[in-house]
Amino acid sequence: MSTQPDRVLIFDTTLRDGEQSPGCSMTAPEKLRVARALGELGVDVIEAGFPAASRGDFDSVATVAREVRGPIICGLARCTFEDIEAAARALSEAPRHRIHVFLATSAIHRQYKLNMAQEEILRLAAAGVSRARALCDDVEFSAEDASRTELEFLAQVLEAAIGAGATTLNIPDTVGYTVPDEFAELFRYLRKNVRGIEKVRLSVHCHDDLGMAVANSLTAVVAGARQIECTINGIGERAGNCSLEEVVMALKTRAAFFNVSTGVQTTRLYPTSRLVSSITGMPIPRNKAVVGENAFAHESGIHQHGMLKHHSTYEIMRPQEVGLARTHLVLGKHSGRHAFRERVQALGFELDEAEFNRVFEEFKALADKKKELFDGDIEALVLRAEGSAPGPWTLVDLTTEAHSNGPARAVVRLTHADGRAVEQTAGGDGPVDAAFKAIEAATGISVALRKFEVHAVSEGEDAQGEARVYVEYNRQSYRGASVSTNIVESGTRAFLEVINRIEQSHERVRSRKERAAATPA
Ligand code: KIV
Ligand code: ZN
């Protein structure tokens, strides 16, 4: 007799643990876009941020709580009343919300980070959870660095959290130190030794420092965890978190082994992964499991021969299952709206009419320059059209001149949203360098360039190049990206996007200060 598979909740922390990793920060509209995509993906919980961390974090959690329907919206809080109350306020407009309270428990963290004795940790954990519970029915408690905590003490802290009203207990492997057998043993120990544990949901949260985050999360499920905390593309602190797409596809592909199910629409995995990569600027390695470009490519003759006989010879999942609907169909300037819409939908994008019209216009313009448009071109058009940071600066014209034996020169013409029109000429070591210098002179913003990369988004000699620019300004990191058939132009537009992001963040700080000055004390 087969038993009904247990449901494992998928708790996505791309917007909190993922976003806090270097180079992955997102603007508020970008976070909202990712949150909407996570809703469509079917995750159970979205950890939208850490409201007490900054005004920006508070506002973006509040926006997600107001706008996104479906998943539970969660906010992180340290074990302080201020943090917990800030989380409750930020989440108040979400019909289903959760406060996630955390406190470190390991001896290393107690001694060096918190300077607290065990008794104090026990008291704080209970006080924090009970304050959260007074404000919200759904409270998660995380024992940070649980995998390096003395077993008996960890059991005591978790018991205190249950006593204070926690409804989910999360066991993080904060530093990615544990190994599957040991971690499973920890879950078994806790299930046996923590009073009341059967009344709460057990959760797992793994980091990937030794490359075992997915394996450790799966083993925790075997040992009784019924919530997995993970991020899209595995982005997160240091080496990252457990990758959502990998853990979900492992549970699905090996359903007979795990006997659990999730609510994830796996056909949304690939488009969501691309969206997060495009927004964060974190590329997906070609050989990344499930969503990498090579994940379903078969190169060797023997493998190709096997695949021709039957796909199951070398394929354990179908690309369609993860939403990889790439084809060798080519669109061009004679393709109409209908064919274009079909391709966009097949690639997993849902655009409203206005967005579709805008992308279709860009498609037509591109088809005039480029004979054949592949799936990669269409994906780049959709992702860029939705994601690029608008203004205040717009590139009106760019002229460059380069010689193999001498300096290059660039002339840029820009307009600003406040009505200014500026033209600047600069020399440089190559046309891209010259264009960047001309933009710096025109806008008055000088940055330290940290990385500049270009890669082809599709096939053919006239393939479009996606340029990504990473800079540092006032000790903050900024990035920009752009796609064009002309890589000097895509580099220049990516650089201008960086300048726009810097101006926008100045503008936000300025208006916040003005508001604060205008508010009576
Ligand atoms: O890694 C960790 O321990 C965390 C907690 C806040 C859950 O991210
Ligand atoms: Zn973490």
Please name the defining characteristics of this protein.
binds 3-methyl-2-oxobutanoic acid; 521 residues; Double Stranded RNA Binding Domain; 18 helices; 3 domains; alpha/beta; 8-stranded parallel β-barrel; TIM Barrel; binds zinc ion
Quick take:
With about 525 residues, the protein is an alpha/beta fold. The protein contains 18 helices and 16 strands. The chain has helices at about 15-20, 30-40, 55-65, 80-90, 105-115, 120-135, 150-165, 180-195, 215-220, 245-255, 255-260, 270-280, 300-310, 335-345, 355-370, 375-385, 430-445, 485-520, and strands at about 5, 10, 45-50, 70-80, 95-105, 140-145, 170-175, 200-205, 225-230, 260, 395-405, 405-415, 420-430, 450-455, 465-475, 475-485.
Descriptive overview:
- The chain is an alpha/beta fold and 521 residues long.
- It folds into 3 domains: 6-280, TIM Barrel; 327-387; 393-509, Alpha-isopropylmalate synthase LeuA, regulatory domain (Double Stranded RNA Binding Domain, 2-Layer Sandwich).
- The protein has helices at 14-18, 28-41, 55-67, 81-91, 107-114, 118-135, 151-163, 180-193, 213-222, 244-253, 255-258, 269-280, 301-309, 337-346, 353-369, 375-387, 431-443, 487-518, and strands at 6-7, 9-12, 45-49, 72-78, 97-104, 139-144, 168-173, 201-206, 227-230, 260-261, 393-403, 406-416, 421-428, 448-456, 465-473, 476-484.
- An 8-stranded parallel beta barrel has the order 2-3-4-5-6-7-8-9, surrounded by 8 helices. It has a 3-stranded antiparallel beta sheet with strand order 11-12-13, with helices on one face.
- Helix 4 (81-91) runs parallel beside helix 6 (118-135), helix 6 (118-135) packs parallel to helix 7 and helix 17 runs parallel beside helix 18.
- The longest helix has 32 residues, at 487-518.
- The chain starts with 5 loop residues before the first strand and ends with a helix.
- The model has no long low-confidence stretch (mean pLDDT 91).
- Bound molecules: 3-methyl-2-oxobutanoic acid and zinc ion.
